[in-house]
Design brief:
The complex is a heterodimer of chains A (394) and B (232). Chain A has 2 domains: 8-292, Ribosomal Protein S5, domain 2 (2-Layer Sandwich); 314-393, no CATH class. In chain A, strand 11 (194-201) and strand 12 (206-209) form a beta hairpin. In chain A, 39% of the residues lie in helices and 21% in strands. Chain A is an alpha+beta fold. The N and C termini of chain A lie far apart (51 Å). Chain B has a single domain (2-228), classed as 2-Layer Sandwich (Ribosomal Protein S5, domain 2), CATH 3.30.230. Chain B has 4 helices and 10 strands. In chain B, helix 1 links the parallel strand 5 and strand 6. In chain B, helix 1 packs across helix 2 (112-127). The longest helix of chain B is centred in the C-terminal third of the chain and has 29 residues, at 200-228. Chain B is globular and about 50 Å long. Classes of the chains: A alpha+beta (394), B alpha+beta (232). At the A-B interface, strand 3, strand 6, strand 7 and helix 6 of A face strand 2, strand 3, strand 4 and strand 6 of B.
Amino acid sequence: MRETILSNNEKSFVEKSILEGLRVDKRNLNEFRNLGLFFGQDVGSVICTLGATKVFAQVSCELSSPRTSRPNEGTIFINVEMGPMAAPHLEVGFPLSDSCIQINRILERTLRESRCVDLESLCIIAEEKVWNLRVDIAVLNHEGNVMDCSCIAAVAALAHFKRPDVTTTGDGEFIIHSPAEKDLVPIVLHHYPICVTYALFDDGKIPVADPTALEERVSEASLVLAVNSYKELCCMNLTGVSLTSPHLILRCSEMAAERSRRIVEFIKSILEEDEAQRAKGNLPKGFAESIALSNLPSNFHNEEIVEKIEQPEIVGIAESSSHGETSDDEVKIIDDNTVTSGKWIEVTSEDEDSSSDEEMPEQTNTRTSQDAPKTEKKLHSNESSEEEKTIVLK
Amino acid sequence: MEIDEDRNNKMRAIASELNILTRSDGSAIITQGGSCCIASVNGPLEVSPANIDMNKAYVEVIYRPKCGLPGVNERYKEKIVKSLCETCIITQLYPRTQITVQAQEMDDHGGLLACAINAVNLAIMNSGLEMKFHMAAIHCGLDSDDNLNIDPEYVPKANLTFSRIQRSSRSQNFKGNFTFVFDSTKKSLIGVNTDGKFTIQQYNEAQKLCKDASRKIFDFYREMVKKYATVL
């Protein structure tokens, strides 16, 4: 089946609303959808949900001979599949669709070429036998930003996976121990690279975080940044037709770093919970439990249940702190917040100073005007004065 | 939706959720004990000229393993599910179209084929395609002492790892495996898949046991309709 045609009306509606800082699903421009992680009974199996986008990942291992160029390292293979389950226009099998290949390649660059998996620890006998890791990612529901979702799923599945222990006897022989004999060994991960995708609009001036399927189709370009929790950039990919500025990339990567830090924290906390359950000796109920508790957000239960990642966002912080304060003090508090609440704000202000980028003040205006108690109006005026400053600077 | 484990019938607990995918016309996730399968149905869709049928809809079934590339086993399961789908959907109502069914296995703790068939049935039910009847699949294992076990759970030894080496050993606790599929109207047998060694008496006995147990599945479907068809 061919993909449903996108009408001009839909396209211009999305474009125009983004210029006004609005999105079809009521999010702010740099707000992400809710993230959920559910581990299965088997080690290394996970369902990751990002809003309505759902991805299932499973890590498996098998013995094989190493590559001749790297005789003392194990291998890692990544396979992303998008079939008609993900979206009706997608097909399984060969030839693979372009989007599928693209996600596969970016994931390979993020996970393999950033060397986050300690491949040397997967070696059993150099030049002869190594573990071959395989990450199978099945996209269940394509509602946009499959990239981020499958990256988080892959990283979580790798962190969750455990391989059988091996002892070498020295004379080229080795024994693979069954889980009953020896405990399983986790995979060594040096760092957790997390992909963060921005769709670019308005000649590459407006980055939109975590785009939906509709926004992905309308956008001019997409910018994928893979950052680990140490703020190291592992992979960057810019596709589409759009010009962009170094300032925008710097700003996006600052925001991506913050996002990545939060996601890694989230993955680790969920992993700990799961590990504690397994340590108690009771095998987790896996997906059965998730269903029983209606944890997997469906469109039948259209509530957002998993709300653990807050959006790394300037006004969000200011708003939350301003609630319940007396109106006189508020402007000051907000001022404090805008100065101290995160590095990326400084970058944006630099950006506004140097390049004539009006986009950030615009955004904040619309955001604050959405819910408008008296306190927000003050913030509004505060922001607009900033905007005036930038105009003067031009 | 959940049905508790009944010790008399030895059926594992079933839980399911419909409509969990937004991009599919119908979708369902089902867990039977530790086994878990997700299915989606799209249709009627535009059909490719190669597969067009003037009299009825063309049914395409895709079955995906949880890891590794699909092989002969998966193709075989696709074929079974496809013939069952062609029987239960009134394909004559949708001529010159295509119906795509995809099943994805998520956790294998025995009886996965039965689990997949039940998931596909729920997904078709959810998609609103016209059906002649519902189908219920039951797995039955014949152990080495010649005892029949309805819907047995594969119990992993200790904290089992998942690697492709151990994959093939999953359902080999039994010397014989049966999967029977029954329809909802006459409760008659519409599909069967067996492997291993067994006698004809054991086969007949297993069929009788599974037919009794299929009532549980149909009751479960009824509960699901009650829960989801709130408009009626």
